[in-house]
Amino acid sequence: MNHVREQLGLYAKKLVQSGLVVGAGGNLSMREGEYMYLSPSGFDLQEIGEDQWVKVHIDSGEIHGDLKPSSEILMHLACFRKRPDIDSVLHAHPSYSVGVSSAGQEIPSMFPDFPAMIKQVRYLEYMIPTTHVLADAVADVVEETDVIVMRNHGVLTVGKSIKEAYFFMQLVEEAAKVFTISSTVGTPRLLSTEECEDLRNLSSEKYRAKLLKDEG
Ligand SMILES: [Zn+2]
Question: Do 176 and 152 contact (CB within 8 A), yes or no?
Fold first, then answer.
């Protein structure tokens, strides 16, 4: 069994089962040496077989095999080229994150894990998916952040492991959801800049590691 493709299969199922993508939306990839394995185009993410992940050479963009890679291939290549420190890229269409950001809002910090785990979120205005324009915009900001919210479209997260990238995705969506619920029943009380700073200073590396471990 190939470890990378096995992990991709596992997290592809998680993305669908947790409602972060619907239908054939979303795509994910992992780095292995000079290559990345990317979800194929047109597949329901839950139904990708272990031998159906598309192998792509990161530097040249050369595609191996017969299957067509996800149409967001340029975005994935941009992330791996710009961030040698990461090995996973997830792109999903989580409804609360898309909903909140498409109203022109930013997703605020309302509970400790969000500012503790995510240093900053970058927002992109709407751009046509699958294009060089979108891939270039992602390339421009991915060196500064692990979480990119694309208004009227979706979210991209990167991680040192696929577990980390998935955790970032879940946290952003949870934050957007909590903000939405709070806005529905009253006026949300956001964590202040100072409270967020305190959380980040709270031996943040240890805190992050602990959360990732506990998350299972
Ligand atoms: Zn998308």
Answer: no
Q: What is the 186 CA–ligand 1 centroid distance (Å)?
A: 32
Output the average pLDDT for the chain.
93
- List, as ranges, residues with CB under 5 A of the ion ligand 1: 154
CA of 93 to the centre of ligand 1 (A): 6
Query: What is the value of pTM for the model shown?
Result: 0.93
Sheet with 147-150, side-by-side order of all strands: 54-57, 35-38, 27-32, 88-92, 154-159, 147-150, 121-124
Q: Above 50 in pLDDT, residue 216?
A: no
pLDDT band at 107 (very low <50, low <70, confident <90, very high): very high
- Neighbouring C-alpha atoms within 13 Å toward the C-beta of 49: 3
Measured in Å, residue 206 CA sits from the centre of ligand 1 at: 33
Using CA atoms, how far residue 192 sits from 112, 114, 119, 206, in Å, is 11, 13, 15, 22
d(CA 150, ligand 1 centre) in Å = 9
Rounded to the nearest angstrom, the distance between the alpha carbon of 143 and the centre of ligand 1 is: 20
